[in-house]
Amino acid sequence: MPIPPTIRIVLGTWERLRDDAYAVRHEVFVLEQLVPVDIELDDDDPLAVHAVAYGADGAPVATGRLLPDGHIGRMAVRKVARGSGVGGQVLDALIAQGHGDGHRMLLLHAQTHARGFYEAHGFMAQGEEFVEAGINHIAMAHVLGG
Known about the structure:
Elements: E1 8-12, H1 14-32, H2 37-40, E2 49-54, E3 60-66, E4 71-77, H3 86-100, E5 105-111, H4 115-119, E6 124-132, E7 135-143
Parallel strand pairs: 4-5
Antiparallel strand pairs: 1-2, 2-3, 3-4, 5-7, 6-7
């Protein structure tokens, strides 16, 4: 799939971006991957900086979040936009936010099938695979330059 002509990335609070971020997360995690809603939504959302990518039509197509402790999570891309590069744009925006916030290292739990995606963005696997929400994951870290 070619890169969409117009992708707009918006960073903001859960209060501001909740409806759009949750729409993408619900579609990907709850409907596709069968993650229970009570696991997918958590008390960290109000604390995080959220990123939402909007397509040319203004519809949300991808999301992710950065927690105050430097953990990136809840990265999700709707099927229609997968392979377009929009997930990388969201991740890059969160990495830039983390760098701007003064983090020296960013951490995440990657679904194992997405390991290569995160490696291409500077993350390195740490430790053994584990199961989270019924899905195989690997811990990954990205050391940020000064």
